[in-house]
Amino acid sequence: MSDAKVMRYSDDDAVVTVQVFHSETAFSLPLVCRLLNHPDRSFALEVSIDLERANELLEQKPPLHFHAQEEYIEAIQGKIGLEIDGREIVLTPKDGRYAIMPYADHRTYPMLLDQQEPGTSVVKFLLSGEKTDAVFELNPPFFENWYNYQKQIVMHGEKLSLLQLFSTFDAGGTYVSLPNWIPFGQTLSICAGVVIGRWIGGMLGYQPFYRKWTTDWDLACTKMEASFFQRRFANRSLKKDE
C-alpha cells in the first residue's frame, strides 16, 4: 500500500531546510523537510535530500534508535536504505509503505549517489507515525525542533549538546539504541532519556520544544505541562519570534 495519495499538501505547510557548508559549493540546501497532514497519523512529512550536495556527509549513517510507536516510511523518488534489527532493506517507489514496528532498532538513510539509478540526484521519502495516547511521541513539534536544532548546529558551528539531544528525543518518544550485548538495553536507554533529558535537562533549562521553531505551540505546551521539570517552559502567550 502507498500513503502518497493520502498525504495532504498545503501552501501553509511548515518547511525546514538544513544547510551544509561545502568547501566548493559554499552554503547549499541538501535537506528539506515539509510537514504534511495525514488523517490517520500523529505526524506526516516529506523529506527531500540533494545527494550531489550532501553525498559525502551521508557516508556516515545516523545512529540506531527506536520509538514507542509504529512508524511508516515510503520512498517516492530514489532509493532509501532502512537498517532494521541488523539487516538492511533497500526501499524504492515500487515497494510502497513499509511499517517499522514499535521498539525495533532501526535507522533510515538515502542510498549513496553511485547506488541510485542513473539520473537520480534527489531522493524523496514520506515518513509518518501512528496516533497514540502517549504524551511523549513522534509529532510535528518534535520534527520541527529536531531539524531546526540540526540547522542551528550547521549554520552557527555549535557543538551538539547531549542534554539537548536527550531532551528533544525523549519528548518525541525516541531513544538511542545501545549495543545488543548490554542487558536490558532498551530499558536503560529509556531511563537515560527520562533522567538525563527530561529531569536533569529540564532543571538546567533545556527545553524539548522552542517557540521560535514550533508551529503548533499549544500542542508543545500541552506536552511540556505533563512533566514537572518542563512545565515552566509552557508559556502559551509567547509569539513565534520570541
How would you characterize the overall build of this protein?
There is one protein chain. The chain is α+β, with helices and mostly antiparallel strands and about 240 residues long. The protein has two domains: about 15-130, Sandwich (Jelly Rolls), CATH 2.60.120.10; about 155-235, no CATH class. About 25% of the residues lie in helices and about 30% in strands. The protein is built from five helices and eleven strands. The chain has helices spanning about 50-55, 140-155, 160-170, 185-205, 215-225; strands at about 15-20, 25-35, 40-50, 65, 70-75, 80-85, 85-90, 100, 105-110, 120-130, 175. The strands form three sheets. A six-stranded antiparallel sheet has the order 1-2-3-10-5-8. Helix 3 (about 160-170) crosses helix 4 (about 185-205). It starts with 14 loop residues before the first strand and ends in a 17-residue tail after the last helix.
Key structural traits:
single chain, alpha+beta, Jelly Rolls, globular
What is the element layout, followed by pairings?
Blueprint: E1 15-22, E2 26-35, E3 41-50, H1 51-54, E4 65-67, E5 71-77, E6 80-84, E7 87-91, E8 98-100, E9 106-110, E10 122-130, H2 140-156, H3 162-171, E11 174-176, H4 185-203, H5 217-225
Antiparallel strand pairs: 1-2, 2-3, 3-10, 4-11, 5-8, 5-10, 6-7, 6-9
Helix pairs in contact: 3-4
Please state the structural category.
alpha+beta
Q: Tell me the domain tally.
A: 2
Output the helix-strand order. Answer: EEEHEEEEEEEHHEHH
**Helical stretch count?**
5
Assign the CATH topology of the largest domain: Jelly Rolls
Q: Main sheet: which strands, in order across?
A: 1-2-3-10-5-8
Q: What proportion of the residues form beta strands (DSSP E)? A: 25-35%
Question: Average pLDDT across residues?
Answer: 87
